[in-house]
């Protein structure tokens, strides 16, 4: 198979983890006889520094032509004080919108090898933790208009609009139900329908779509309760489907309680263009350039790309198994280090994975 990839390493630890991830991809290409051509493009802070924009047009054009897009991370303290209209995060939101990536799949699972790193008591996670947040990614309060800061009657006011139309809810609902059909056949839709009108519509549409998936067990939770249930009894969840803002918050919560946010991958998918694959964690400016970053989430994002974008199941499994084996053999980066294990830097742990492919 021959595929063309757009690579956006981004800021902070982004370049370090991306270069290691690509070493794994090259090895897979060699082993299974594929060819992946790569084009590096700018996004985020580095794009601001080099071009004045967090999302140059050339980046959007290149991504639209690619067969898949890989992203490291964006942002850092040096861009915190610039004009909010061109913050690094705008690059990320912009590329999601430009590519129509409305569905964000964020699996959170507890790797048995890393159970010691889990933030919850062993009795709470005795049944494991393996869920997927399906977050709506191009609508809701992130993009709703009107939005702004202005002066009204001599007072500064700030406002955003949480808005969904029925089609936006319907298409993300289908993604969630289809994902559940391949998993434990449970969907929990999270909203705030006791307060928000937008959530009442959300729930209505979810109920409509559910009729097409009679095998899937559907439940609803208000977002505050969902946040609580995630730490109280996370094994009750299979697929959680929710809006952009609630999904942003709940996916951080779900991933961090596994204790291994440095291990978790994500996919952002649309209809028109190729998907974008990235680790869940951020740019970690505090450890950038020190060789301390954990590249495993990026490596697993590449596995997710091979599976979702190119249907290369064997290749994806090969990477996942190599990562598992690396952990089983006791190799760790600093973020998941435990007593008695072997501490590796970013390159070393990738070496261990490559040996096990
Ligand atoms: C995420 C991040 C982004 C978001 C930021 C960096 C814009 O938190 O991908 O979850 O809020 O969507
Ligand atoms: Mg977030």
Strand and helix map with partners:
Layout: E1 2-10, H1 14-32, E2 35-40, H2 45-51, H3 57-65, E3 68-73, H4 88-98, E4 103-109, E5 130-136, E6 148-152, E7 155-159, H5 166-181, E8 186-191, H6 197-210, E9 217-222, H7 223-232, E10 239-242, H8 244-257, E11 265-269, E12 276-279, H9 296-310, H10 313-328, E13 331-332, E14 342-343, H11 346-355
Parallel strand pairs: 1-2, 1-3, 3-12, 5-10, 8-9, 8-10, 13-14
Antiparallel strand pairs: 4-5, 4-11, 6-7, 11-12
Helix pairs in contact: 1-9, 1-11, 5-6, 7-8, 9-10, 10-11
3-isopropylmalic acid is lined by residues 89, 92-93, 248.
What does this 3D model show about the protein?
This protein is an alpha/beta fold and 357 residues long. A ten-stranded mixed β-sheet has the order 2-1-3-12-11-4-5-10-8-9, sandwiched between helices. A two-stranded antiparallel ribbon has the order 6-7. A two-stranded parallel ribbon has the order 13-14. The chain contains eleven helices and 14 strands. Bound molecules: 3-isopropylmalic acid and magnesium ion.
Topology order in helix (H) and strand (E) letters: EHEHHEHEEEEHEHEHEHEEHHEEH
How can the largest sheet be summarized? 10 strands, mixed
Distance separating the two termini: 19 Å
The proportion of residues forming helix, as a percent range, comes to 25-40%
Topology, number of strands: 14
The percentage of residues in β strands lies in 15-25%
**Low-confidence runs:** none
Structure annotation, total helices = 11
Gyration radius over CA? 20 Å
Mean pLDDT: 96
Bound molecules: 3-isopropylmalic acid, magnesium ion
Structural classification: alpha/beta
